[in-house]
């Protein structure tokens, strides 16, 4: 189906938000409205400055093609290419504003995105869209993991299945009200410290990673992809160095975020063996965005995940009193982290599907 006046072209990513001619901000607004239509709220919505810094991460090639009708942005295709040597994956995601669906715009954007990935030599495509909860009792779709389901009638589910994509995993999106969970935080700190005993303690900092901890933090970031549940997804290792840690911290600051981190330290070796962090947006009244949480496999079984998460929840109001909520994503099969989050007071607010598609080899 053709749409009169449809124009799809690459979006010029500005160097700073002050350089934006309005197109980037309009794209973010459409992105946020599309996401909120599925989630039911704007809890996850970044502001333009906060999202812009993601496109200046030099370890990825990230591009956006926007679909316009009569000059108005109605959808976008997002393509992300990790730049590590030997990378096999491309993230290809399509969003069309609900008011403009059913006209072939999404199909045109997806064809473009998949083509861009193929041109870059990437044969494994992945997408991480937000889906509606679908609590009407209709047909549900489960991933091969057997954990979680999505409504089969969800627009994104139907769209990706028609295009030959496979649902591999489901992430639960949860939210916590920090003021209502102070008693749970205190109890979790107590139980976490009991589990850690005399072998571990907690370090907490706001802002950039302390220089003496950058090497440890790089090692932890590198293990995020290999130690976290990944279902049947193709996973490319990421190369992390102290320089990359500094760059990540710097971009958070440039985007107006306050980064708060809690880390578990193994006392005998003075090495960090686990961490969790949140990105508090420039509007401190908005929910903080959970970044990463990881405890190294070889140090699990000591309630360190509970300890560092509780320590982080205690620290956030100290560094940003206006921040009253945190949102987080967890794989449905990651029962340990779900148990931790539920104990702290997180409640589900939505679901994210993790989809994959293999392209045929080029002839």
Question: Explain this structure to me?
Answer:
With 363 residues, this protein is of the alpha+beta class. The chain has two domains: 6-174 and 353-358, Aminopeptidase, CATH 3.40.630.30; 175-351, 3-Layer(aba) Sandwich (Aminopeptidase), CATH 3.40.630.30. The chain contains nine helices and 15 strands. It has helices at residues 23-39, 48-52, 105-119, 155-162, 182-196, 214-227, 242-254, 304-319, 335-344; strands spanning 6-10, 60-69, 72-82, 89-96, 124-127, 130-131, 140-141, 150-151, 166-177, 200-206, 258-266, 271-280, 288-295, 325-331, 347-358. The strands form two sheets. Strands 1, 2, 3, 4, 5, 6, 9, 10, 11, 12, 13, 14 and 15 form a 13-stranded mixed sheet that branches. It has a two-stranded antiparallel ribbon with strand order 7-8. Strand 13, helix 8 (304-319) and strand 14 form a beta-alpha-beta unit. The longest helix has 17 residues, at 23-39. The protein is globular. The two termini are 30 Å apart. 38% of the residues are buried. The model has no long low-confidence stretch (mean pLDDT 96).
What are its keywords?
single chain; 363 residues; alpha+beta; Aminopeptidase; 2 domains; 13-stranded mixed beta sheet; two-stranded antiparallel sheet; 15 strands
**Total domains:** 2
Which architecture name of the largest domain does CATH use? 3-Layer(aba) Sandwich
According to DSSP, the number of beta strands is 15
Strand content range: 25-35%
The main pleated sheet reads as: 13 strands, mixed
Instruction: Report how far apart the termini are.
Output: 30 Å
Share of helical residues: 25-40%
């Amino acid at each position: 189906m053709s749409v009169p006046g449809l124009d799809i072209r690459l979006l010029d990513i500005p160097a700073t938000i002050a350089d934006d001619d309005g197109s980037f901000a309009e794209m973010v607004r459409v992105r946020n409205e599309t996401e909120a239509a599925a989630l039911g709220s704007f809890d996850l919505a970044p502001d333009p400055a906060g999202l812009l810094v993601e496109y200046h991460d030099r370890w990825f090639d990230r591009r956006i093609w926007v679909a316009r009708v009569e000059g108005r942005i109605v959808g976008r295709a997002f393509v992300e290419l990790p730049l590590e040597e030997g990378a096999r994956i491309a993230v290809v995601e399509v969003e069309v504003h609900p008011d403009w669906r059913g006209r072939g715009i999404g199909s045109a954007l997806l064809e473009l995105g998949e083509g861009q990935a193929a041109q870059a030599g990437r044969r494994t495509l992945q997408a991480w869209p937000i889906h509606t909860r679908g609590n009407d009792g209709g047909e549900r779709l489960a991933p091969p993991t057997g954990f979680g389901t999505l409504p089969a009638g969800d627009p994104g589910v139907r769209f990706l299945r028609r295009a030959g994509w496979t649902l591999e995993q489901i992430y639960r999106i949860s939210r916590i009200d920090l003021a209502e969970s102070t008693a749970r935080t205190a109890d979790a700190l107590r139980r976490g410290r009991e589990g850690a005993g005399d072998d571990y303690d907690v370090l907490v900092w706001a802002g950039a990673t302390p220089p003496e901890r950058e090497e440890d933090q790089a090692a932890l970031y590198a293990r995020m992809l290999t130690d976290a549940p990944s279902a049947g997804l193709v996973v490319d290792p990421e190369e992390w160095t102290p320089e990359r840690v500094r760059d990540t911290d710097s971009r958070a600051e440039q985007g107006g975020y306050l980064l708060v981190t809690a880390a578990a330290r193994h006392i005998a070796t003075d090495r960090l063996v686990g961490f969790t962090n949140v990105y508090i947006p420039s509007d401190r009244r908005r929910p903080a965005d959970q970044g990463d949480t990881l405890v190294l496999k070889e140090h699990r079984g000591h309630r360190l995940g509970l300890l560092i998460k509780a320590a982080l929840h205690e620290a956030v109001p100290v560094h940003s009193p206006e921040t009253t909520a945190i949102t987080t994503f967890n794989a449905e099969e990651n029962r340990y982290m779900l148990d931790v989050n539920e104990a702290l007071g997180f409640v589900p607010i939505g679901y994210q599907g993790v989809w994959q598609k293999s392209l045929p080899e080029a002839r």
